[in-house]
Amino acid sequence: MQVLSMIFTREILEEAINYGLTKNTTSFTRIKAGIYKTEREKHRDLPSHYIYTACEDASERLDSFNKLKKRGRSYTDRPSVRRVTVHLDDHLWKFSLNVISIATKRGRVCISPIFPKIFWRYYNDNWLIASGARFKLLKGNVVEFFIVFKKDVKSYDPRGFIPVDLNEDSVSVLINGKPILLETNTRMITLGYEYKRRSITNGRSTKDREVRRKLRERDKKLDVRRKFAKLIVKEAFGSRSAIVLEDLPRGVPEHMVKGVKDKQLRLRIYRSAFSSMKNAIVEKAREFGVPVILVDPSYTSSICPVHGSKIIYQPDGGSAPRVGVCGKGGERWHRDVVALYNLRKRAGDVSPVPLGSKESHDPPVVQVVEG
């Protein structure tokens, strides 16, 4: 392991970041062209591909730092290199179940790996190991590998459509012509962590890193998104259907909070992460080969799918009225139900839309138990 510690990846990474800041660029190509010759002369015995991967790492760090800086979330004037994870391409490492070999300054080092259960789950499911990997050194000369799996998945021709409407506190789906409302409890998570955040700050900025480390709001919501994405995708895969989603533009919360004066509602909308839920569904769909159709999201909840007329929502005492009346036919439509039929219609489904009743017809609500 002492040989591994002689890989000067940190030094090359810092030089690459300095060059990117000096030239005001995040381009991998420009950074590599600017430092490669100098670093190659300094580290003649080091495999050249370490310089390539260090430049890729620097490019990613600079790009991430610039995005945080634009949002006012950067804590330093420049990216700080606190942890180094060495990127490996197919020239720098060789994999087998018994031995993993890594090219270093003094030749190849062989390591006997110990695999966790999640590795065997993917490996035994016929997933392929990608050519790239990463590793970092831990205490006690322990090497932690990050192995990437890949799988060639072929998409199928869909037999039907499953439209999905994303909301602040729920996800509504249309399965076999029946609308179902899945409660995500995102509202309670947001408000609970907001109250907790206020209780522990005591005058400190909520941007304080120590405060953010104590809170697990992001992890909690990520877990919810992944569970619901898997649930929806597996249903679509089983029925050989395509998933229909709204093609949400950038800055969705900013558009939604226009005209909203309730501070608590504005907070909940900002932290609902609509695009993140959509991306989670799309990512899981790629894993299963489920086709995804993105449609125009405009007026999906305000246009009657039968008559094409505007749905009039009367105030019901809540922050957002859920049931409205078709201005032409007089049918009562639930906001989430009408959105599903409009999404399915815009995806190209010409199946007849059932007329809404004259009575309020909230969709059945399903609470997903954590576990």
Automatic annotation (TrEMBL):
UniProt keyword annotations, A-Z: DNA-binding
Annotated GO MF terms: DNA binding
Disordered: annotated span: 351-371
DNA-binding is among the record's keywords: yes
InterPro entries reported in the protein's UniProt record: Cas12f1-like_TNB (IPR010095)
Pfam families reported for this sequence: Cas12f1-like_TNB
Keyword DNA-binding: yes
TM helices/strands, residue ranges: none
Cas12f1-like TNB domain span: 274-343
Domain of life of the source: Archaea
Name of the protein in its database record: Orf in partial transposon ISC1913
Annotated organism of origin: Saccharolobus solfataricus (strain ATCC 35092 / DSM 1617 / JCM 11322 / P2)
